[in-house]
Amino acid sequence: MTRGTRQQLICQKTRGRERESSFKVNFSFIIVTMGLKSCVFLLVVVLGLSQGGTNIEEDQYGVRYATDCEVCKLVMKELGEKLQSKDSSGVIETGYNIDASKKKTKYNKSELRLVETLEEVCSGMLDYRIHKEREDSTRWAKKMSQTFQTLHNLVNKGVKVDLGIPMELWDEPSAEVTHLKTQCEQFIEDHEDAISSWYFGDQTKSLQSTVCKKTLKEKKCLSEPYGEDITAEEQAKEKAEDKKKQKGDRSKTRKNEL
C-alpha cells in the first residue's frame, strides 16, 4: 500500500475526527460541573488532550498512559484480530468497466482488505478498560476491572456509591483509553510501511515479531500475557498479594512511628 493512498484516506476523515474531538472536549467540560474533585481531574485531562497530552503530570492525577511497548502490543493484537475477521477466500476484480480483462486478486492479499482493516483498528482501542489494580501491561483488558465489578455489585445490593460522577458515566472510556486511540492512530501512520511489508510478504512471523520487536527499545511488555487472558484464579491471587503488601506497609509504618 502506497503512503499516498493512506494519506488520502486520512485527509478524507480529518474533518469528521475534528468534529468528534470537538464534541468530546465540549462534553468533558459539561462533566466538569460534577463535584470539585472530578472537576479538577477532568479539567486537567481536557486541557492536556487539547495540547497533545504533553503537559499532564500523569502520576499526580493517577493517569498513566500506554507506553510505546503497550501501544505496539495492543495495536498489533487488534490488527491481527481484525484481519482474521475479514478472512475470505473470495476474489475481487480491479480495473475500469471498459477493460475487458480486469485483474483478479484474492481478497486475503488485496490492498482493499488492509486499508479497510487499518481504518477500523483504532476504534477498537475504545473497548479497552484500565485495571488499576495491575501494574504491568495486563492493566489493559477488554473487560470490566475488579474495582468497577465490586462497585457495580455494591450498587446491585442497594449500597449507595458516590464517585462524584453519574453512574451512567462509570463505564465510559477513561482518559488513558481515549488517549490510547490517539496513540494508535499515530502508531499506524508511523509504522505503515512495516505493516504493509508484513501483509504483502509471506507472513511467517507474527505482526508483533515483525513490527514491535524490530522497532521498540523496551520490549518487556511483549513477554507478558494479555489482560483478557488473566484468569479469575490469577486475579484472586493478585488481590491476596496486594492485601498482604498493604498489611506489610501498615506494619512498617507503625514500627517507624514507635
TrEMBL record:
TM stretches of this protein: 25-49
Family to which the UniProt record says this protein belongs: Belongs to the canopy family.
Domain DUF3456 stretches: 68-221
Presence of the UniProt keyword Signal in the record: yes
Stored Pfam families: DUF3456
Source organism: Penaeus vannamei (Whiteleg shrimp)
Full protein name: DUF3456 domain-containing protein
Region feature Disordered, mapped onto this chain: 227-258
Superkingdom of the organism of origin: Eukaryota
Entry-linked InterPro entries: DUF3456 (IPR021852)
Lineage of source species: Eukaryota, Metazoa, Ecdysozoa, Arthropoda, Crustacea
Amino acid composition bias (Basic and acidic residues), ranges on this chain: 234-258
Alphabetically ordered keywords of this record: Membrane, Signal, Transmembrane, Transmembrane helix
